[in-house]
Amino acid sequence: MTTVITYGTYDLLHYGHIRLLERAKALGDKLIVGVTADAYDQERGKLNVQQSTLERVEAIKATGLADQVIIEEYEGQKIADIQKYDVDIFAIGSDWRGKFDYIGDYCKVVYLERTRGVSSTEIRAASNPMVKCGIRGINRISKKFFEEMQFVSGIEADCAISDDSDFEDCFDGRLNIVDSYDEFYEGINAVAIFDSIDRHFDAVMDALNHGCHVLCAGPLFMNEAEAKEAFALAEEKGLVIFDAVKTLYFPAFEHLLLLIASGHIGQVKSIDVSCSQIPSDFDPKKATKFDGALYDWGGLASLPIVKILGTDYKDIEYFVHREGEADLFTQCLIRYDDAVASFKVGKGVKTEGNMVITGTKGYVYVAAPWWKIDYFEVRHEDLRATRREFYRYAGEGLRYEALEFVRTINSGNLHHRLQSEEEILCEARIVEAFSNQ
Predict the structure, then answer these.
(1) What is the DSSP string of 142-165?
(2) Which of 63, 350, 373, 399 could be 148's S-S partner, Cβ–Cβ 3.0 to 4.6 Å?
(3) How confident is the model over 75-100, as pLDDT tens digits?
(4) Spatial distance between the Cα atoms of 115 and 100, rounded to a whole number of angstroms
């Protein structure tokens, strides 16, 4: 028996894919098809995939051409698979000609001609209209977001505006800076908001009333009432409100949540998180109450707590150190029925910046800065059983939230897959409890 193996993403499976699979199958008696996993695609910078791994696997199975379907999850797996399945022929599209010649040391390599005139990229472009995004708020974060958007297909920055009159053009002339909101909203269907938290609600409502989807830096809202009003308007108009907290969309963070949900460390009893920064241009004496640690870090610091322990906490308590109006250091204690969580946030004060998730069977340790997570350890009583997980991300990581924003808009589902409306409402309650101190 001659065994053939081939690999691909197979996003939006089309006639060209099927013809390639038919040619591969004709080379032998058994065809194994490797479908790239979401995390592996993202790790190598392929951020325009519209369908999940499961959807793509089911599409391959439905063709009836594959005798076996496997998942490709890491670089170097192809050789391991060739040895594991005793493969005779490795087949791949001719656009990869020469790229996989090294596999010739393990089996025969065949480059198959692709079907001309059809591509997943063209199908995606035809089925999903471009998200044209305006940027509201000009600062170092919006600049980074603009840079990262260039790596995501299906979205482009159209213009930017700022309510501050003394901002510096940080886009180096590559983005149109407009003076009026009438001009800003002309021709866009989405708004990315990177402004002070006290301006978020008005900015979100303004965007929704102009028919624009919203991506907003967290914390999104000052209180639960604002959040509910905004979500009600978004529901009425069929628009998306999206939390721009990049950590949520990192491959490593998603895998961490899945691992904990699987019960690998048992029942979670405690979560301890810390975040801090000493900005070179931060002057506590000139800062307003909206420039402090909690309003900068609260959405991020509460993220793993709400995602893992849920939204139904019993009570919350804050310990705050202020200098002038702004808080320089804040510690929060959140109690649940059978667990407790705490976070520390600092601005102009430095703390560790790690995260520890404690369970009945073990714990997860994420080194500082945990919010840039690409590696974590799962530790048990027997340290020899320590599990180390690596999931690289590209660039600053902001491209992943841009990707999910586009996917959510194109899916037609107002509530995206990684964060529920109730979780954002919970974040608003946590911020509101601080504001009421």
Answers:
(1) HHHHHHHHTTSTTEEEEEEE-S-T
(2) 399
(3) 889 999 999 999 999 999 988 899 99
(4) 20
* 179 CB burial (10 A radius; 0-12, 13-18, 19+): exposed
Residues forming a β-bridge with 347: 277
Q: Could you tell me if 272 and 334 are in contact, meaning their C-beta atoms sit under 8 angstroms apart?
A: no
Please list the alpha-helical segments (H only) found in 109-195: 120-127, 140-149, 181-184
For residue 251, is the peptide bond before it cis, meaning its omega torsion is within 30 degrees of 0? no
pTM of the model: 0.78
User: Residue for token digits 């048992």?
Assistant: 266
Structural contact between residues 121 and 110, judged by C-beta atoms closer than 8 angstroms? no
DSSP-assigned letter for residue 349 = B
CB-based contact 131:189 (threshold 8 Å): yes
Quote the Cα angle for 10-150-16, to 5°: 20
Instruction: From residue 342, give the alpha-carbon distance in Å to each of 60, 305, 430.
Output: 46, 8, 12
pLDDT digits (tens, 9 = 90+) for 260-312: 999 999 999 999 999 999 988 888 888 888 989 999 999 999 999 999 999 99
Torsions phi, psi of 420, nearest 5? -90, 165
Q: Which helix (H) or strand (E) segment is 317 a member of?
A: strand 315-323
Which residues face 359 on adjacent strands?
A: 268
